[in-house]
Design a protein that fits this description.
alpha/beta; Rossmann fold; six-stranded antiparallel beta sheet; five-stranded mixed beta sheet; 10 helices; about 25% helix; about 25% strand; RhgT-like; SGNH_hydro; hydrolase
Amino acid sequence: MKIKPLAALLLALAAPASFAAMPADGWRFDFTAKPAPGYTAVQAGAAYDTARGYGYELDNTAAKGADANADKGANGATATFFSADVPEGNVAVTVTLGPGTHTIKSEVRRLMLENVVVPAGQVATRTFVVNTRTPQIAAANGMQPGVVNLKAPRETVQEAWNWDRRLTLEIHGGVDKVDIKPVQVPTIFLLGDSTVSDQPGEPYASWGQMLTRFFKPGVAVANHAQSGETFRDSLARRRIDKIVSQVRPGDVVVLQFGHNDQKQIKAGSGGPFTTYKAELRQHVEMVRAAGGLPVVVSSMERRRFDADGKPESTLADYAAAARQSAGELGVPYIDLNATSKVLYGALGVEGSKPAFATKDGQIDNTHHSNYGAYLLAKAVASGLRDAQLPVASQIVDGFAFDPARPDPFDKFAVPASPRYTNERPLGDEANR
């Protein structure tokens, strides 16, 4: 499927005036044969155009199947990609759905709606909130203006949809109408490594991509995590600066690092109870100074079992350091490390395999599949609720999670994305 080249992204950043402005009352698109009054008709095959400000993200080289607007990936998955220019920040997206089963993801595979079933002869509307961003850092909350130091080509090519000036929807099942308008709601910012970041292609996924599924439109999720990184990288690449420049009172900043920080021990440049804690403290203090609420999360375990089939610890020191830091700093703490061990133990040696990405017959014992990411997102949402954070009031109705009784894999039916990659997420190479 189509991925924006680096040159196109750089042009977008250098010349924002070339992009169409969202109408004052927002975008209103109609994809049906008889567009409703007040809506912009979207013609089949109308490719995205910067002057127009909207259109399909079409790849003329991709297999199309029955729908000329849809892309078909190497994994056989099919979806339609539609983009519209929006201002940086949070936008409320209301979709009108006709008969059928509908799943919608946004930007780089963030799950927004899961298998919404609309009976024959009926229509349904659903609203969700998507966070969009650019690399520019505003002079706000004490931050110096500048840009996030993006990783090329990963963020400038494979993940460019996370950084451009448009909202992109990945549509499974079709839509009749799409209404888009800016909205002011509390934001949950995510900062972490590959187990949190928006993974650009199957078979990899992260809990950060799935967390959006479990919140009502009264909250936005802004995922600033990136593969292969540590607290130190967040500071050096100005990821935390970008978040702090946007934080408002009532916003939450979830911090989860550990997997890649272990490499600093081998390099002689740090450890869990020294530099890791110091850099974590620096993040917490920056978020607090901007009026946000930091939340510390310990890293989930890797898939590793002992001879008796019990999960082994590979990140115990970093989990302990995260717990100590949260206590010392007086911030909420989610023990995802402990929860993941209960979860993997409940799944078992064989049952845990589908929770991790498998490529070319090899299981990646660090990075998760859609199924595993989905379960861990539920664990994080449950942790936010157990911590009694105000944003937890926006968790979807009927939400439940018990790591000792995980959702069975044979009931998991989130459709895969056409975007497929042969590139393993960055970092943690020694712990596949």
